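for the writeup, i need someone to sanity check this before i put it in the appendix. the sequnce is what the collaborator sent (i think, or maybe the updated version? ugh). structure was predicted straight from it, no edits. if anything looks off just tell me and ill rerun, i have time this weekend
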Amino acid sequence: MKDVDGKTAFITGGASGIGFGMARAFLKAGMKVVMADIRQDHLDAAASTLQGSNLPYHFIRLDVTDREAVARAADETERIFGKVHVVCNNAGVGANAPIDAADWEDWDWVLGVNLGGVVNGVKTFVPRIKSHGEGGHIVNTSSMAGIIPLTATGGIYAASKFAVRGLTDSLRLALGQYNIGVSVLCPGLVHTNIMDGEKSRPERFKAKTQHPPRWSGASSANAGMDPLEMGERVLRGIRRNDAYILTHGEFKDEVAGLFDDILAAFPTDDNIDQGRLEFENRRRAMTEAAKAEARQVK
C-alpha cells in the first residue's frame, strides 16, 4: 500500500513502545490512527505527547483477549474515521516463568495476548477490509524470538511469536487475491515497556508461582532501537509490501547459522517416494502461485 495518506490505521498496544512508534510514523505520513491499549497510564502518556498536535488520532482502552471488545473497538474506529485499511496487531507481553516450570496461567496469559490477540484482530478486521474492496495491509508483530529460540525463561514468549510468524506467513498467501498485503514484523531489542508487562496481567491470569525477573537492574530494553525509527521501518515495509519486516541487522549471521543447521538435518541418501513427490509438487505450485499473487498487492 504505497498511498497511505488519509487512510485509517488501527494499532493494538498502540500507546507505548513499538505501537506508539508506529502511530507517530503513520500520523506523520498523513494517516488517521486509532491507538488501542490495555493500560490507561500508557494511553494518558500518549495523549499528553500528542496534545495540541491537531492530528487525526483516537484512543481506545482495549484488552485484545476480549473478542467482543475488539469488535466494539472496530465499530468505534469506523464510526470516527471510516473504513480501516491498515491493522497492526502489535500488543504483546512477556513472562518470567521458565517454559519447564510455568503455571497454566502463564501459558494462558502470554498465548492469549500474543497469539490470541492477533487472531482476534485478524478475525475482526479482515472481513471489514475485504468488504470495502479498497485493499489494505495487516502487520502482525512477532519477534526475532519467532525465528530463533530463546532459553527457558523466554520459552513461552518464543512459542507465541513462532505461532504469530506461521499465522502471518499463511495469511499473506490467503489475502493477496483481495489486494490485502500482510507482513510479519520481527524486531530485536526496542526501547519499550515489555519488561514491565506484569502490570497489565489480569487477575484471572495471576500465576501461583512467582519467578524472578529475567533481567536485573535497569531494563535492557532501554538500550533498544528508538520506537519512532521502528515505526518508520514498519511504514516502509507496508509501502513495499514486504513479507518480512526485519529491522535489526545484528541477527543476520545467527539466523543464517540456524538455517544452515536445518538444512544440514535433511537426509542426503533418501529415496523419495514418487507419490509423495507428486503431492508436494502440487502443494508447492499452489504456494508459489499464492506468493506471486501476494507480491502483486498494491
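Residues 8-295 form a domain with the Rossmann fold fold (CATH 3.40.50.720). The chain has one domain: 8-295.
thx in advance!!
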